[in-house]
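Example 9 (inverse folding). The structure is encoded as follows.
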């Protein structure tokens, strides 16, 4: 007799084509998700499901519980755990999907390939001492922040669903278990290349590099120097991404090389958080005791990670190792230049500037100095500057800020654009709403108690971060001053 549940799983629109499983066997292991006791879908991203060509109604009403929990894999899926390595806070380790299972690559009706991954779906060969599971809070947190990043226009993995498992997970206390379904352009990490490199077989690195070129940078596949072009393209995507993080005050929190995706999407939302008051030294993660991944240090760390990526490509860049090192070094040196170009270009938009002037950099830097000195809110300062332009009132009555403000106003009036155009540019470049820590925490606490209303409201307002209205006003308010600094914890 045909299992009815299985039958519905056949018709949810999945269209798998699993190219990663054709790679050398050293790069992954076949691994089914481990079944859970009582799966219950608590969040479902209907719009994302539709954009993937999936049958959203069917998934939500029928198959979602069994598929997003890993209790049954959809037809066409060939579940694997991927091997990778990584520098964790500077120390090299062999890692791998210890609590994630890649169901496979789903091809949308438009022909776009996405990894569908279950996070928290049980142990694999790479779990080491971990239980392969995830707690509800951190999975909801990844859902909130990744979807907020998407709405802010920042390349990111997406979140399709969260299901609770009906099983406890044991951390410092007993928590509800959950599984997140993550959608990514791919899960190829800097750490994937580091793992391949650790095998000391040039052919494995070459195969992985060719695969990555095919999948993400197909414009270079027939170029003679395709591996150097790959390196440059990855550097370019990361410099663009880091510039975007810095525009919105995003702190990743754990920029280990295994948490940096080659495709240029933000990946692995663990202890990440958005900064309220501007301070480049801001660190939220409880385990980042030396500020390695502090807000202002992120571009530098990205370059460090990219150097680790470049090292893995050395055998492919030139036959002569010394020449390879020179080529790789030259490429890595372009990162700070590219980053600064992207960053300044985005910053100009945040300040309503359409043109480029030599002293734009100092204009931005002086504002940031004021923001740091007077503990100004990063998001609201930029957003309010737009209305400042209209009402000609200063948000801060301090001489250095007033001097900066008049320089800025002169600069704005010195371009061939109307004031209204400048304001419009600012309003679409400066979000009104970001996922502020106190709002995220409030929504998570309620959800952990079984009340998802606050979470739903937060997700709604974060889906249109540039819009202002009665609801967004509440979410624009910075937290009340607190004696204890906000701390985040790794999402394990
Ligand atoms: P992360 O800090 O989330 O980037 O994870 C670092 C490494 O630890 C990865 O190899 C994860 O798969 C692994 N890991 C994290 N949590 C668990 C867990 N609960 N069980 C098994 N492995 C885990
Ligand atoms: Mg990770």
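The amino acid assigned to each position is listed next.
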């Amino acid at each position: 007799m045909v299992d009815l549940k299985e039958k519905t799983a056949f018709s949810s629109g999945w269209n798998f084509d699993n190219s990663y499983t054709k790679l050398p066997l050293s790069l992954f292991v076949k691994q089914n998700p481990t079944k859970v006791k009582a799966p219950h879908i608590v969040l479902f991203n209907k719009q994302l499901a539709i954009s993937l060509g999936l049958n959203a109604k069917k998934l939500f009403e029928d198959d979602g519980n069994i598929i997003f929990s890993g209790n049954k894999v959809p037809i066409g899926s060939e579940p694997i755990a991927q091997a990778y390595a990584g520098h964790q806070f500077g120390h090299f380790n062999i890692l791998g999907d210890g609590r994630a299972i890649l169901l496979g690559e789903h091809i949308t009706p438009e022909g776009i390939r996405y990894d569908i991954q279950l996070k928290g779906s049980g142990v694999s060969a790479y779990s080491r001492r971990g239980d392969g599971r995830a707690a509800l809070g951190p999975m909801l947190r990844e859902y909130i922040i990744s979807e907020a990043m998407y709405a802010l226009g920042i390349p990111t993995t997406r979140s399709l669903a969260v299901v609770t498992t009906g099983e406890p997970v044991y951390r410092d206390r007993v928590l509800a278990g959950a599984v997140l379904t993550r959608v990514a352009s791919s899960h190829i990490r800097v750490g994937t290349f580091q793992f391949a490199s650790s095998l000391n077989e040039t052919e494995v690195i070459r195969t992985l590099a060719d695969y990555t070129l095919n999948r993400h940078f197909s414009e270079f596949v027939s170029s003679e120097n395709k591996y150097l072009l790959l390196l440059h393209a990855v550097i370019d995507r990361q410099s663009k991404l880091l510039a975007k993080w810095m525009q919105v005050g995003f702190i990743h929190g754990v920029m280990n090389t295994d948490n940096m995706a080659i495709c240029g999407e933000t990946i692995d939302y663990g202890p990440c958080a958005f900064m309220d008051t501007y301070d480049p030294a801001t660190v939220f993660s409880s385990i980042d005791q030396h500020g390695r991944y502090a807000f202002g240090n992120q571009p530098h760390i990205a370059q460090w990670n990219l150097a680790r990526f470049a090292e893995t490509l050395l055998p492919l860049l030139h036959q002569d190792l010394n020449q390879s090192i020179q080529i790789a070094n030259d490429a890595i040196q372009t990162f700070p230049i590219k980053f600064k170009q992207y960053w300044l270009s985005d910053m100009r938009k945040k300040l309503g500037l359409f043109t480029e002037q030599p002293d734009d950099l100092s204009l931005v830097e002086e504002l940031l100095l004021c923001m740091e000195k007077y503990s100004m809110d990063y998001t609201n300062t930029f957003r309010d500057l737009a209305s400042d332009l209209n009402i000609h009132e200063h948000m801060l009555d301090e001489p250095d800020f007033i001097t900066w403000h008049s320089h800025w106003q002169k600069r704005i009036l010195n371009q061939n654009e109307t004031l209204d155009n400048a304001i419009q540019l600012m309003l679409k470049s400066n979000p009104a709403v970001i996922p502020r820590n106190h709002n995220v925490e409030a929504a998570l606490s309620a959800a952990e108690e079984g009340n998802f209303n606050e979470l739903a409201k937060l997700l709604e307002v974060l889906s249109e971060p540039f819009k202002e209205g009665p609801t967004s006003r509440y979410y624009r308010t910075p937290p009340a001053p607190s004696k204890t600094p906000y701390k985040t914890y790794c999402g394990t």
